[in-house]
Write a structure and sequence with these properties.
By secondary structure, the protein is mainly beta. It contains three helices and nine strands; from the N terminus they run H-H-E-H-E-E-E-E-E-E-E-E. The chain has one domain (2-215). The longest helix is centred in the first third of the chain and has 12 residues, at 2-13.
């Protein structure tokens, strides 16, 4: 997989159109490199992020993004069996403006709106029933939300078709969080709870992720 990625990257590096041809490049597609670094270091915590941009003026672009993640894990800790799984996705749309700083560098700014959904569940089971302490605990968390994200960033063009960019932003979000849980003891007595809350947040995000884009 990694070998194929670098082969494609080298092919893109050598796909260098003339200056006249670059004027006709009106679409760009890119992805966040964070998922690659997480796979290298085996942390497995980064979502897949994809972005499509369409030119709407000389220095103006529409952008459409998708962030998605799925993960699961199971392990045994003494007499406890643990399992976790989560899924999330967040589509977005926005406008991006650009200002050339040199032949290779560009300053960019704009804003986008997004909606999001995530689901997280856990299960923990105590398998030691020698002292009547066997039990089962389950939790579920569902989150629906929306956000506005003004941003600024900088881009570096490696070739006329290939460039990298990073952005800093302010995330203004509101979300509904639904929590549910249950506990079952050795004599099948079940206790349940649920909670429904609304959250608001304003979070500064530094320019820590790098996107790679291909123009066509």
């Amino acid at each position: 997989m990694k070998k194929a990625f670098f082969v494609v990257l080298l092919a893109l590096l050598y796909a260098m159109p003339s200056t006249a041809q670059t004027d006709s490049l009106r679409r760009e597609i890119g992805f966040s490199t964070q998922i690659i670094f997480d796979n290298i270091f085996e942390s497995g915590g980064a979502p897949f992020e994809l972005m499509l941009k369409k030119r709407r003026g000389e220095n103006s672009w529409m952008r459409y993004g998708l962030q998605a993640y799925y993960g699961s894990n199971e392990y045994v800790d003494f007499n406890h069996n643990h399992s976790h799984s989560s899924v999330s996705f967040s589509p977005s749309a926005g406008i991006e403006k650009r200002k050339a700083l040199s032949s290779s560098w560009q300053f960019l700014y704009g804003g986008e709106a997004s909606i999001s959904y995530s689901y997280y569940e856990t299960e923990q089971r105590n398998t030691n029933n020698s002292d009547f302490s066997e039990w089962l605990r389950k939790t579920e968390k569902t989150t629906y939300g929306g956000a506005l994200r003004p941003f600024i960033g900088i881009s570096y063009f490696i070739t006329p078709r290939l460039y990298v960019t990073t952005e800093a932003s302010l995330l203004l979000s509101v979300s509904r969080v639904q929590n549910w849980g249950s506990e079952e003891d050795y004599n099948n007595t079940v206790r349940q709870y649920s909670q429904d809350t609304w959250n608001k947040a304003a979070v500064m995000r530094p320019a820590s992720h790098i996107f790679v884009y291909y123009r066509f």
